Amino acid sequence: MPRLKPLSRDEAPEDSHRSMDAAARALGAPTTTAGIQARCPPILDAGQVLGAAPARSGTLPAELRFLVCIRVAQIVRCPF
After folding, report:
1. Does residue 37 form part of some domain?
2. What total number of domains does the chain contain?
3. What pLDDT score was predicted for residue 29?
4. Which distant-in-sequence residues (6+ apart) come within 8 Å of 6 by Cβ?
5. Host domain of residue 29
6. pTM of the entire structure?
7. For labeling, which of 9, 22, 23, 55 is most exposed (least CB within 10 Å)?
8. pLDDT of residue 80
9. 2 pLDDT band (50/70/90 cuts)?
10. pLDDT per residue over 4-58, tens digit each?
11. Helical packing angle, 41-57 and 62-75, nearest 10°
12. 17-27 and 41-57 helices, crossing angle to 10°
């Protein structure tokens, strides 16, 4: 359970709406992380860029990146 209450799109600053919408489209639903990071739109934007960096780098095949994400989620006990 997060310490900060995630903001809904309506509660978030207008600067964060585009990034929150993109996160919801990519994952199929609004995310807790985007709702928390929306409190500071520059952090929300930077987090999305950082999260997309492994895919853009082309270093790992998509299948291996997916397996790494699953394993990391298991290690930190995050539902994935």
Report:
1. yes
2. 1
3. 85
4. 30, 32, 33, 34, 35, 36, 38
5. 14-75
6. 0.70
7. 55
8. 60
9. low
10. 899 999 999 999 999 999 888 988 888 888 999 999 999 999 998 998 888 888 8
11. 130
12. 40
Cβ-Cβ contacts under 8 Å for 8 (sequence gap 6 or more): 30, 35
* Cβ pair 65, 52 in contact under 8 A: no
Read off the tokens for 7.
């903001």
**pLDDT, position 28:** 86
Enter the tokens of residue 46. Answer: 């930077």
Give the confidence band of 1 by pLDDT, cuts at 50, 70, 90.
low
Is 38 a domain residue? yes
Concatenate the DSSP letters of all residues of 30-74 into one string: --HHHHHHTTSHHHHHHHHHHHHHHHHH--S-HHHHHHHHHHHHH
Question: Which residue shows structure tokens 């997309």?
Answer: 52
Query: In this structure, is the dihedral angle defined by the CA atoms of residues 6, 9, 71 and 43, taken in order, positive or negative?
Result: negative
- Domain for residue 8, yes or no? no
3-state secondary structure of 76: coil
